[in-house]
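Most newcomers find our protein records easier to grasp once they have seen one. Read left to right, the backbone structure tokens trace the chain's path through space. Once this layout is familiar, the rest of the handout is easier to follow. The record below serves as our worked example for the rest of this section:


***
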Amino acid sequence: MRTLGPGSIASVLKIALDVAYVVMILVTGLLLLLWVASIFIPLDNLNVTVSDGADGREMPLSRPLLLFGLGALTAYFSGFLLILRYLRKIFRTLTLGDPFQPDNVRRLRQIGLILAVVTGGVWIVQGLVAARLAPGVMEPQGISDLLTPVFSVLVVFVLAEVFREGARLRRESELTI
């Protein structure tokens, strides 16, 4: 089976990305609706248990806590929705058999930036939760927990440069007689 062009592995992956994109739109939309609804729903006598394994800490569920949690979750899924959006556009060019387009360089850079923001946001939010919401129950993440995500972000930026070089070479070859 071919890797690029119509009927290729790239086209199958494009279909999978399309399905994931629709699912992510639905999940993000539902979370956004829950966030808006949480402004109005009564929270009398509701508790939340925060745990990191066997032990846990029960505390009352306040509106700011609920809004913060749903907002953070919505932002997390929104970031990945944007990443899927750009990946779909990249895979569309792969399906057409024309991957080295300048737009793909921009898209890969945007994916890297969004991935960096999501990674940093998760790290900060987990640190806040560990320090403020569940001190002694949850451990804050350390710098070592960022190694794999930072490596992934760097790989995306390197791929963007590979695509930039490919687009440059393609442009040069088009000018050659």
